[in-house]
Specification:
Elements: H1 28-58, H2 65-76, H3 79-91, H4 113-117, E1 130-132, E2 135-136, E3 143-148, E4 151-156, H5 169-172, E5 183-185, H6 208-213, E6 252-254, H7 260-274, H8 279-295, H9 305-323, H10 329-343, H11 349-362, H12 367-378, H13 386-402, E7 406-407, E8 416-417, H14 420-440, H15 444-459, H16 470-482, H17 496-501, H18 524-538, H19 560-563, H20 575-589, H21 600-606, H22 616-624, H23 652-655, H24 681-694, H25 701-711, H26 716-726, H27 731-743, H28 747-758, H29 766-782, H30 786-795, H31 811-830, H32 834-851, H33 866-882, H34 889-906, H35 913-926, H36 931-940, H37 949-958, H38 966-979, H39 982-994, H40 1002-1014, H41 1022-1032, H42 1037-1040, H43 1053-1065, H44 1074-1083
Antiparallel strand pairs: 1-2, 3-4, 5-6, 7-8
Helix pairs in contact: 7-8, 8-9, 9-10, 11-12, 13-14, 14-15, 14-20, 15-20, 20-21, 22-40, 24-25, 25-26, 25-27, 26-27, 27-28, 27-29, 28-29, 29-30, 29-32, 30-32, 31-32, 32-33, 32-34, 33-34, 34-35, 35-36, 36-38, 38-39, 39-40, 40-41
Subcellular location: Nucleus
Keywords: Nucleus
InterPro entries: NRDE-2, TPR-like_helical_dom_sf
């Protein structure tokens, strides 16, 4: 091998020119001195060149046999031989006429012919190792080779480009889950000196020469092909290769030992092995599998079905191991629930049914196991029967009523109590789920009648019946029901209490007539579907014997015997603490947001896949949005204010929101108030008005007025005055009336109302007065009167400013207002008056926004200091977290005030989107299900970058296991409808329906079917989506009717008849028999 000291080896060896004739050889003495000097100067460079040249020749493919053999000899030399060779070369002379004998040389000039021919000599360029389809093995990204004529060129493929993104997933998957750790072991050779112990490198692979030279008795010898153990196979990595109980062997180095996820797995495995009774450790280990699954997913972060199935089997094994060590009943319940949820992805239907039957007998008092069993049976198309499911739910009502100890929460805690409030809260939840199930199965009038009866029986019960026995109360109520007097929710209804006071002498209701029209259509099946839906819409109101109903429909008139098994009497001492959860449950049945959300059972119902429905606005958006990227100017784009299936913490500014802010009544109430809801909106308005009038439920006044405004905006003044007349000192009603007028576009009237109400503020009503001043300040801010808004905040602390003009307060006056509000806030926080503290914090934020002189964010004349306002809000937020109120509705309302500030500031002048995203991301971390935070974060995100912050925060936070909800899934689909394309929206639907939270939601399946049919690219898959939805939601009649409306043109006659036969065999309510309808249509 030629050494770097030879000057002749520096001559480039290209065919484009010939080397010059060698000069006369210098003297030996001068030659040696120059060699030593050059050796000292260039030794570092030559050492690197020697290393690079060796690596270059390892990849060379088109070299001569002589040079290949020469390289083997040079690498097989021992270091002592190489040192000797270096010493000899220093005094040796290279023949002048053969400069190409050396293996390595340095080109310092380059080849000028590269410009002429466009590339290097291919025979002298090493080939990269390819991993298939032009990809380069070992590349850190999408590096691949493609041909450009005769040349090969490199390109970088961006994510999503190319024929298939999934083919390249291995390049980007986490090494934690995908890569097999390569282990390097340093072992001593007991037989003597190692063959390469003195070499200056560690061989990562064995050459054929070394393999032949090794002794056959080494401990790492592989199985020979003649062995009785069978054909020799390459060793595969397995879990058994890792010993979690002991440290690594001496002399062994694992290149993956610094991976935090693997270290976490080792720690948890060791922990459950050392302490098998630690159930929390088992749950941490089981939940850690979800982290590993997400890390090992595809490029978009989603795991494949095979991976989900594999991890489910692992988790089942862990659950079973943990169950054998569980000692507490609550731990056993949690483990059983997790086991059965994972088993639904792996076990067969027969095995699941057998196991559920055994658990139902052993744990009949467990609510969460009962609910999980009901969910399983609801989604089993083969075994589903309406009558059987109804019987199970009714039996649960009777079981809870008789239990001595009942579950205190819907979660898997097994904590029981004998408190009557907990008992009836659970019964209300079961009743809500039962009636929603009956309604979706087609028995609408029965479900509505059951709610009328329950509200009348418990919230309209005469006071004289409180001391009676339950049987006597039920018997008296039966007389009221069969008298067919006006019932709650109907026009002119005054309630059961009024009926008893009048001794049954009340005006009868007007008779109604069912609409028996038949829609016209050339397609007889489409005509039947339209007729069936029309009959179902008419059946939302239970009929009476005096009504003109269709003779062949025995279900239209609901008798007391039809609903008796569903009813229960709430004791009078429990009603004051239970009327709010009961009203919330009724609102959820009607597809409306809750008014109070004071119970864990109510929060569980808000995310129940059977209860949450009536997404009519979502269905409309799915059909109308073009699914094209928004190309409008970002400054003209507004947030998605109207959304159904949304989650908020209700406040007055939301209940009476105008077109420029979020409203909880933007679902079916915005599409059709009479026909799109479970009941007409007028029926809800009548119900709430009667409850407010007869029971004195004053806390329901704001919500009731909001319903009145939505139902009939022109009647706002009349309804507001009627409510104020009942409670003239309630400042919240004045505040609500002012906001209602402002939302209707009557800003001047709103200012007059709030100005008149300010004169009613006294010392005792100062808290309600502060809310009124805040509303007045916000109204001025919306009108652009910042100075006047500042005066309103000062008036909250100083009465001398209440009649002041729009002059700017002096610094001393501002300081006085600031100190007064700060002292009030400190007192309220220490006294745990949190609702009042939120109003004070809002006043302080407005004051800081309008008065702070310096800020880190850009401002204009119409804006204030948003950073100062947010600082005040986050200070109060940290104090609430310190008091254990981090997840409370009070804290959520405070952060909604912050979101309102952010949007107001951004809509009035310059702002930084990064600042808005940073503030809103903190809000989302605390309340990941809040639709306001998610919508504003989406609006503030710039979509022109490579990364999408909205999809990122949805995947990492909002759609994580604990935060996954129906509202977040619907928001994710809406986002793709607005900003994505057809296929990204399809993927969002698929991810939502793969989630346990939405897997059995009929409305999402319906919207997915409509979306697929409305897009030409997906129309061929619409039928498949429909049948998948029918398997998961066999109780939903509305979903089944999609075959006769949306998909009627792509369904053949056999499929249409099969769908009808399925509905009939499962016991769903059918108004018009298909065979009779077809026969009648043929005659006509």
């Amino acid at each position: 091998m030629s050494e770097p000291g030879d000057k002749k080896l520096t001559v480039p060896k290209f065919s484009s020119f010939k080397p010059k004739a060698p000069a006369a050889a210098p003297s030996a003495t001068s030659e040696r001195s120059r060699d030593r000097k050059r050796d000292r100067d260039e030794r570092p460079k030559e050492k690197r060149a020697r290393h690079e040249s060796r690596r270059h020749n390892d990849h060379l493919k088109h070299e001569s046999e002589h040079r290949r053999q020469h390289r083997k000899r040079s690498r097989s030399r021992s270091p002592s031989q190489e040192r000797a060779l270096v010493k000899r070369v220093e005094v040796a002379t290279i023949p002048k006429d053969n400069p190409s004998d050396g293996v390595f040389f340095i080109d310092k000039k380059g080849d000028p012919l590269i410009r002429r021919y466009g590339g290097n000599d291919r025979s002298r360029v090493p080939l990269y190792r390819r991993s298939g389809r032009g990809r380069v093995l070992g590349s850190g990204g999408y590096l691949y080779i493609h041909r450009d004529g005769p040349q090969e060129r490199f390109s970088v493929r961006q994510p999503g480009e190319g024929a298939s993104t999934l083919r390249d997933r291995a390049l980007f998957q986490s090494k934690t889950h995908r890569a097999k750790p390569f282990r390097i072991r340093v072992r001593s050779n007991p037989g003597g000196t190692d063959a390469h112990v003195e070499e200056d490198f560690v061989p990562l692979s064995k050459s054929s020469k070394r393999q032949r030279a090794e002794e056959p008795g080494s401990e790492d010898e592989k199985t020979a092909y003649r062995s009785i153990k069978g054909k020799a196979k390459a060793h595969e990595f397995s879990d058994s290769d890792i010993d979690f109980d002991s440290d690594a062997e001496d002399g062994e180095f694992d290149v993956g030992s610094d991976d935090p996820l693997r270290q976490r797995s080792i720690q948890l495995s060791r922990r459950v092995k050392e302490h098998p009774g630690d159930i929390e450790a088992w749950f941490e280990l089981i939940n850690h599998q979800d982290v590993l699954l997400s890390i090992g997913g595809s490029l978009d972060g989603e795991a494949t079905k095979a991976e989900v199935h594999s991890f489910a089997e692992i988790k089942i094994s862990m659950f079973e191991s943990a169950l054998s060590h569980a000692k507490k009943p609550e731990d056993e319940e949690r483990l059983l629930l997790g086991l059965m949820l994972e088993a639904a992805q792996v076990w067969s239907s027969s095995k699941l049914e057998s196991r559920w039957t055994d658990l139902a007998k052993k744990y009949d008092d467990s609510f969460c196991l009962w609910k999980a069993r009901i969910d399983y049976k609801l989604t089993n198309l083969v075994a589903f029967q309406y009558n059987d499911m109804k019987a199970l739910m009714v039996d649960r009502l009777q079981t809870v009523y008789k239990q001595a100890m009942v579950s205190i929460s819907p979660g898997p805690s097994r904590l029981a109590s004998n408190a009557e409030t907990q008992r009836y809260e659970q019964m209300v939840y079961v009743f809500l789920r039962t009636t929603r199930f009956m309604y979706d199965a087609g028995f609408r009038e029965l479900a509505v009648a059951a709610w009328q009866a329950l509200l009348e029986l418990n919230l309209q019960r005469p006071a004289v019946y409180d001391a009676m026995a339950e049987l006597q109360i039920v018997s008296s109520f039966k007389e009221f029901w069969e008298d067919e007097s006006p019932r709650i929710g109907e026009d002119n209804a005054l309630g059961w209490s009024h009926f008893v006071q009048m001794d049954g002498v009340v005006d009868p209701p007007e008779s109604q007539t069912d609409d028996d029209t038949v829609p016209k259509s050339r397609d007889v099946y489409k005509c039947w579907g339209a007729t069936e839906r029309l009959r179902a819409t008419n059946s939302r109101k239970p009929a009476r014997a005096t009504d003109d109903v269709l003779e062949d429909d025995p279900y239209r008139v609901v008798m007391f015997s039809d609903i008796e098994e569903l009813l229960f009497v709430i004791p009078p001492e429990v009603v004051p603490s239970l009327w709010k959860p009961l009203v919330d449950a009724f609102l959820l049945f009607c597809g409306l947001p809750t008014a109070f959300r004071t119970s864990d059972w109510t929060e569980a119902a808000e995310n129940d896949t059977v209860i949450m429905s009536n997404m009519k606005l979502f269905e409309k958006d799915v059909l109308q949005r073009p699914n094209e990227p928004d190309v409008l100017d970002e400054t003209k784009r507004v947030p998605m204010f109207k959304q159904d299936a949304s989650r908020y913490a209700l406040s007055a500014d939301l209940l009476f929101a105008g077109p420029g802010w979020f409203s909880p009544f933007s679902g079916w109430t915005s599409t059709s108030k009479d026909s799109d809801g479970p009941v007409p909106l007028a029926a809800v308005s009548n119900t709430l008005r009667l409850l407010l009038k007869s029971r004195g439920c004053q806390e329901l006044a704001e919500y009731s007025l909001a319903i009145e405004v939505v139902n009939d905006p022109s009647n706002t003044k009349k309804r507001a005055k009627a409510f104020i007349k009942q409670d003239p000192t309630n400042l919240k009603l004045y505040n609500a009336y002012a906001l209602a007028e402002f939302s209707n576009g009557n800003g001047e009237i709103g200012l007059q109302v709030v100005g008149s109400a300010a004169g009613l503020i006294t010392t005792s009503s100062r808290t309600g007065g502060l809310t009124l001043w805040n509303t007045w300040a916000w109204l001025e801010l919306h009108e652009g009167n910042n100075a006047q808004a500042l005066v309103r905040i000062c008036a909250a602390t100083d009465e001398s400013w209440r009649n002041a003009s729009a002059t700017m307060p002096s610094p001393s006056q501002l300081l006085k207002a600031y100190q007064s509000l700060s002292a009030t806030l400190e007192h309220q926080m220490s006294a745990k008056q949190l609702d009042e503290a939120i109003a004070t914090a809002e006043s302080l934020a407005v004051l800081a926004y309008l008065t702070a002189q310096e800020g880190s964010e850009p401002t204009s004349e119409a804006q204030g200091s948003i950073s100062a306002a947010m600082e005040k809000i986050w200070t109060v937020s940290s104090e609430l977290c310190a008091q254990g109120q981090a997840k409370s509705s009070t804290h959520e309302r405070l952060l909604q005030v912050a979101a309102r500030f952010l949007y107001h500031h951004a809509s009035r002048g310059p702002f930084r989107r990064a600042y808005l995203r940073d503030q809103l991301s903190q809000c989302i971390d605390l309340f990941p299900r809040n639709t306001i935070f998610l919508s504003l974060f989406s609006w503030a995100s710039n979509m022109f970058g490579i990364d999408d912050p909205v999809r990122d925060i949805l995947r990492k936070v909002a759609l994580a296991n604990a935060n996954d909800s129906i509202s977040n899934r619907v928001f994710a689909i809406r986002y793709e409808l607005q900003r994505g394309n057809v296929y990204s929206t399809q993927a969002a639907f698929e991810r939502a329906l793969e989630s346990p939270t939405c897997r059995s939601n009929p409305d999402i399946w319906r919207c997915y079917t409509k979306f697929s049919y409305a897009r030409q690219q997906l129309r061929s898959k619409a039928k498949d989506v429909f049948f998948r939805g029918l398997r998961h939601c066999p109780w939903s009649k509305e979903l089944a009717l999609e075959a006769y409306t949306t998909l009627v043109s792509v369904m053949d006659e056999f499929e249409l008849r099969s769908v009808f036969n399925t509905m009939s065999s499962k016991g769903l309510r059918i108004h018009v028999d298909l065979d009779e309808f077809l026969a009648q249509q043929k005659k006509t």
